[in-house]
Amino acid sequence: MSLIDSVSLPRSFRLPHVDGLVQWIVPLAIIAIWQVASITGLVPTRVLPAPSDVGLAGWKLLLSGELVRNIWVSFWRASTGFLIGGSIGFAFGLANGLSQLSARLTDTTLQMVRNVPHLALIPLVILWFGIDESAKLFLVALGVFFPIYLNTLHGIRTVDPQLIEMGRIYGMSDGELFRRVIFPGALPSIFVGIRFALGIMWLTLIVAETIAASSGLGYMAMQAREFMLIDVVVLSILIYALLGKLADSASRVLERLTLSWHPAFQKR
Amino acid sequence: MQTALRTSLPETERTSRANFAPTARVVREERPAQTSGLPLSIRALRKSYGDNEVLRGIDLHIPAGQFVAIVGKSGCGKSTLLRLIAGLEEIDAGGVSFGDAVKPEDIRVMFQEPRLLPWARVLSNVEVGLGRDRVSSDAHSRAEKALTEVGLADKREQWPSLLSGGQKQRVALARALVSRPRVLAFDEPLGALDALTRISMQRLLERVWRDQGFTAILVTHDVSEAVALADRVLVIEDGRIAHDVAVNAARPRKRGSAELASLEGSILSHLLSADDRT
Asked: Which residues lie within the region annotated Disordered (chain B) (predicted)?
């Protein structure tokens, strides 16, 4: 490490390169240990198949087109539900953060609904929508609504009042004040909400697909369980991990692009 | 040494003298015409918060272009007076009038905190100061000119979080100056700076005031700062003007001169004797 540090390359050039590799060391090491343990018989393949078997199962499913179709279905459900729930949550967050009247009217109700675990609604949702697409979208949208609502609201309420006073003194209109002061000030908090919501999005979708679905990754895993295809079950779990990581990375990239002014994003 | 050099030059060489200022450089051909300061009349001004009467009848006339410092102990109402002048608070009774019809851009305030938008680069922060002219085509060049006046033209694309405290305050000054205000109110703008930065900021304030000719109202805790900068020092006690002291020392003033020191001493003793009485 000290050798790398002493090389006088510019930080911006060196860091992303090394960082990109460093974060994968631990997952790759785990897979290597797992493979060795399977080959030596330390872990019986009935309990946990070797990574190579999982890879092989993935390859077969990929060739049959089943894997891509299921990933695509799950991805579509996740992103559509996220967009619907996220935009409604964002809209309520804005309205209640900017207007006292709106907050008084709706905040109490939303706080009550928030305390109901949304997965508890699954029986009701199945009765309402069957195992249709709308059932999954409804659950995902409900799940992502609250973190985005709460963090948008919090972000707007905690914008520095001195900056708002400054904006008013310098003659900003309400629209300009929102665009130049309130929204950028709330953005770091909104991103916290988005990252929470991404986690909840996958959780909700997996549970919903496992219980009530006829396609998607969760369905694929449940089908595989019926036929004792443990390699496919493990494969599904690994794909969830990868998709979760992908969503998190995407939000990080967005964060870095929009929050480059923030001291926390400048020294990296 | 700097001061000695500056005092030896004749009064007419104001612009070239500005080039000696330690932190700021002025491009002479971009020098705008002098903006005319506004005179200011305050009649029987009162303000209270709940039961607490902060200002108990202030009568004051400030001629156009004068540099007035307001000193007093914490809670004496000096900041409230400034906020009323700047129109940041509602007036309870009495009135503040400027000799002329004023636009919002004519009166600017600079606070103790720089209040820069952390998510806007230095230049856009200065553009905020243009008020309704923000959208005009020359907004950029005007903001750049103001940044040059405070000596920070090279920081135009910087994020505010990367600037030092003194630099942030200079950006805030550029933002206040960019609309060519006719009254500039300072609410302890140097209160949070270290001693050396304070002195260079004081010189900068004095220079831009002399260049642009606005009426300056400075609220400060620091009596030596008040006598170094102002034409006139007002001492506020219990919501009234207790003393009105003219400072006639020639400019540019030499810091620590006997004349200023004795003036500072007498104002301080006013402030402290009020303390002894209570």
From this structure: 1-20
Asked whether residue B56 is assigned to any structural domain, the reply reads yes
For residue B132, what are the domain limits? 120-181
Do residue B118 and residue A162 have CB atoms under 8 angstroms apart?
no
- For residue B252, cis peptide bond before it (omega within 30 degrees of 0): yes
Same domain, B164 and B202: no
Is residue B22 a part of any domain in this protein? no
CB contact under 8 A, B115 and A261: no
Contact A175/B at CB under 8 A: no
- Measured in whole angstroms, the distance separating CA A151 from the mean position of its chain's CA atoms is 15
Shortest Cα–Cα distance, B254 to chain A (Å): 35
Whether B74 and B165 share a structural domain: no
pLDDT, tens digit only, all 268 positions of chain A = 344 444 444 444 455 556 678 888 998 999 899 999 988 988 888 888 888 889 999 999 999 988 999 999 999 999 999 999 999 999 999 999 999 899 999 988 998 888 888 888 888 888 888 877 888 999 999 999 999 999 999 999 999 999 999 998 888 999 999 999 999 999 999 999 999 999 899 889 888 888 877 888 888 988 888 888 889 999 998 898 888 888 888 888 888 888 888 888 765 4
Contact A170 B131 (CB under 8 A): yes
Burial of A178 (0-12, 13-18, 19+ CB in 10 A): middle
Residues B79, B190 within the same domain: yes
Pick A162's closest partner by Cβ from B86, B115, B162: B115
Test A184 with B117 for CB contact under 8 angstroms.
yes
List Cα–Cα distances, A52 to A176, A234, B17, B192, B208, in angstroms.
Answer: 57, 12, 79, 64, 74
Distance CA(B73)–CA(B220), nearest Å, equals 9
Instruction: Residue B265: give its domain's CATH number.
Output: 3.40.50.300
Decide if B117 and A162 are in contact by the 8 Å CB cutoff: no
Residues of A in Cβ contact (< 8 Å) with B168:
none
A185 chain-B contacts, CB cut-off 8 A: 119
Please tell me the distance in Å from A180's CA to the nearest CA on chain B: 8
A211 located within any domain? yes
Rounded to whole angstroms, how far apart are CA atoms A17 and A31? 22
